[in-house]
Amino acid sequence: MKKTVIIIISIFLLITGYFCYLQSITNKSIETLSKFGSSGDEVKQIQQKLKEWGYYKGNVDGVYGSQTQQAVKNFQKANGLTADGIAGEKTLAAIGISSSGGSSSGSGQTSSSSSDLNLLSRLVYGEARGEQYIGQVAVAAVVLNRVSSPNFPNTVAGVIYQRGAFDVVSDGQINLSPNKTAKSAAQDALNGWDPSNRSIILF
């Protein structure tokens, strides 16, 4: 009888410890999200990017206040995301910020290239999947030409998510998974092929 009680208590303690561990992981995950009341470098990156794209009008101070929250909601609505005002993993990815807090445009060439290729592929697929291959490459090239132009944001994410720049952003097609053709077209553009002849305008 005594052994049975000890076994039951041991099992209870193990289960309790496991649930406490799960709760601590959940809490840690929640705390890493930028949301109302948060502060720090990730919040500054969010504010800076949303300011460049016209969603945020306040100071880039790293404080996640009501203005930042509303800017995030507006960005989420415009990009087919859940408009909860919380910069979770999907929202950060759409903005171009890795969930670890680094910007995809400044956290190393490999990370930047991978992120740019993925986003560019999604744009090509959403914008031109019915076009000939050369046309798909041209769409990607136009984005890169805009990145190089002083009249546009200087990142792929900045150009693509600039307010009113592409219909596929406002209608949510930017979130579709690209096919191999779109990925190849984006890669060819990144490698330097420009069928648009340095144009910054989609035909």
Overview of this structure, please?
The protein is mainly alpha-helical. It has 3 domains: 1-31; 41-95, Muramoyl-pentapeptide Carboxypeptidase, domain 1 (Orthogonal Bundle), CATH 1.10.101.10; 109-190, Orthogonal Bundle (Arc Repressor Mutant, subunit A). Helices cover 58% and strands 0% of the residues. The protein is built from 9 helices and no strands. It has helices spanning 2-31, 41-52, 66-78, 89-95, 109-128, 133-148, 156-160, 167-170, 180-190. The model is unreliable at 24-31 and 101-112 (pLDDT under 50).
Throw out a few tags for this protein.
single chain; 203 residues; mainly alpha; Muramoyl-pentapeptide Carboxypeptidase, domain 1; Arc Repressor Mutant, subunit A; 9 helices; 0% strand
Distance between the amino and carboxyl termini:
83 Å
Q: Just name the CATH architecture of the largest domain.
A: Orthogonal Bundle
Helix content: 55-70%
CATH class of the largest domain: Mainly Alpha
Number of domains: 3
Average per-residue pLDDT, rounded, comes to 79
Strand content: under 5%
Shape: globular
Biggest sheet record? none
Structural class: mainly alpha
**CATH fold call of the largest domain:** Arc Repressor Mutant, subunit A
Written as H for each helix and E for each strand, in order along the chain, the element string is: HHHHHHHHH
